[in-house]
Design goal:
The chain has 499 residues and is mainly alpha-helical. The chain has helices at 6-22, 26-45, 49-67, 75-111, 125-128, 133-149, 158-165, 179-182, 193-196, 199-244, 251-282, 300-306, 309-323, 331-345, 350-372, 385-411, 415-425, 438-466, 469-486. The longest helix has 46 residues, at 199-244.
Length: 499
């Protein structure tokens, strides 16, 4: 179910009414929220519900069994968590790479002289792509691995694990939450009678609810603007056509399309995240931030501290550290392998692997620079404001263009098209079609969101928090109407729904 639909708006309104009326204790909150999660996922793909239940069960069972062997170095514990992780990687690999393996086998047989068609082994696309599979597997694995690493963390009931992995604002495309971020926000105990009748407590509770409402709707409006207006416009008016047939466009247009896609994927994915955070905030649950002005980064390392933060920290905590991190072997190899795995997570295509390896190489350069020139950034040479500003601008310019160029491999439908775009860009030819000038305005606006978005967000949320509730409704309705008026008739699915 797409967040940017009236169908979801009615569903969410119904969910809020159910939770506000029925979720008075932790038990009832778990019951109603779990039912809402399952209903939401059933709308997205009812045939995949057993898979969601299975992932939750694997992680629930893993935590219970590892808790039964409390000694950290117990070999049985390592076997249990290893089996749980392997089973989920197998599930993920089957659904994400099944088509790739079948087609590769067909090509191998053809190269050996056997013309055998294995197309009958390929089920429909709907079966090949379970919605949200990667995200709820990663979320479930984090729950199980955390309890394996810390014997003091007690296992939760199966219903609670299922509630965690199926939380409907994040189940389709994240952010990837951790159990210690989610469960403390649920109702713990009923309010004591003394506090329940206290006027100061009621005033404070009302202020917190009002702030959650104001910030929640501000996040939702921010996400709608990014997705419906900016991402949709850039996709429709330049990105889709140029990436499909770069040979028909001038070098300048291909350059602009590269920048446009960088802004499109930011607006699309951060827009989804804003919607998820806003929905969670209206339910009284704070979902962690996933983006922090990533295109202002001055290094690839800083970029990954700002882009898809929940995935980058997940890869760091559960892949990089598992490979040895900085302690075992070569940290540069571990960095490279971690990012290559992150690339392959996006799909079984060479272009995703190239994208991941390029970022791995960029991280290796960052770490090598700091290791072999540790005092350069703080040297007296850079203490002068003008030189420091020039250095920062050069670092930003280099980082930004590295990221934009590497995005070509992420977006292009094949390696051939990605290389064709690179070739067209650096031919510097004016032959070919141009682009609408409004595209430049959309790119500039998307970049400006990262520069001043935090300030405009805080200002709008402050105003919304202070105005009377009927005025809140008028303001929100007005902005929603403007956003959907500026957007196209039909809004494309979010980019990360396919991952």
């Amino acid at each position: 179910m797409n967040f940017v639909t009236f169908q979801f708006a009615f569903f969410f309104l119904f969910a809020l009414v159910i939770l506000s009326l029925g979720a008075r204790t932790l038990r009832t909150q778990t019951f109603f929220l779990l039912g809402i999660n399952i209903a939401f996922y059933a709308f997205a793909g009812v045939q995949f519900l057993p898979l969601l239940f299975l992932v939750a069960f694997i992680n629930y069972l893993s935590a219970v069994l590892t808790n039964a062997h409390p000694l950290k170095k117990h070999g049985t514990r390592r076997f249990i968590i290893g089996a749980a992780v392997f089973a989920q990687i197998l599930l993920l690999g089957f659904f994400k790479y099944y088509e790739f393996l079948v087609l590769s086998a067909e090509q191998v047989l053809e190269s050996l002289g056997y013309k055998v068609s294995l197309i009958f082994l390929l089920p429909s696309v709907d079966i090949l792509l379970p919605v949200g599979l990667s995200f709820y597997i990663f979320q479930g694995m984090s729950y199980a691995v955390d309890r394996y690493r810390d014997v003091n963390l007690k296992p939760l009931s199966y219903c609670n694990v299922l509630l965690f992995v199926s939380f409907f604002p994040t189940v389709l495309s994240g952010p990837i939450m951790r159990s210690n971020q989610f469960f403390p926000q649920l109702i713990s105990d009923p309010v004591s009678p003394e506090l329940n009748g206290d006027a100061e407590y009621k005033k404070m509770e009302k202020a917190l609810i009002n702030r959650d409402i104001a910030e929640g709707f501000t996040y939702i409006l921010s996400g709608l603007f990014k997705k419906v207006v900016l991402a949709s416009y850039l996709s429709e008016h330049i990105v889709r056509d140029v990436f499909q047939s770069p040979e028909f466009y001038s070098s300048e247009t291909v350059f602009v399309a590269m920048y446009a896609y960088a802004m499109q994927i930011f607006c699309d994915f951060s827009g989804y995240t804003d919607l998820a955070i806003g929905i969670g905030r209206l339910m009284g649950i704070k979902i962690p931030q996933n983006f922090n002005a990533p295109y202002l980064a001055t290094s690839v390392k800083e970029f990954w501290h700002r882009w898809h933060i929940s995935l980058s920290t997940w890869l760091r905590d559960y892949v990089y550290f598992s490979l040895g991190g900085n302690r075992k072997g070569n940290k540069y190899v571990n960095l490279f392998l971690t990012m290559a795995i992150g690339g392959l997570w996006h799909g079984a295509h060479l272009r995703f692997l190239v994208w991941g390896m390029a970022h791995g190489a960029g991280l290796m350069v960052n770490h090598a620079f700091k290791q072999f020139l540790p005092g350069f950034s703080g040297s007296q040479f850079l203490n002068k404001p003008v030189i420091r500003a020039c250095y920062s601008f050069f670092a930003w310019f280099l980082t930004f263009h590295f990221i934009c160029v590497v995005w070509l491999f992420f977006r292009a439908e094949s390696m051939e098209l990605a290389l064709a775009m690179l070739q067209k860009m650096f031919l510097f030819t004016s032959e070919g079609d141009g682009y609408p000038l409004l595209v430049l305005a959309a790119i500039f606006c998307a970049f400006a969101v990262q520069c001043v978005g935090k300030y405009s967000f805080n200002g709008f949320a402050f105003v919304l928090e202070k105005v009377w509730y009927p005025f809140k409704l008028v303001i929100i309705t007005l902005f929603c109407a403007i956003i959907f008026k500026l957007g196209p008739d039909g809004v494309l699915p979010f980019i990360y729904f396919q991952f």
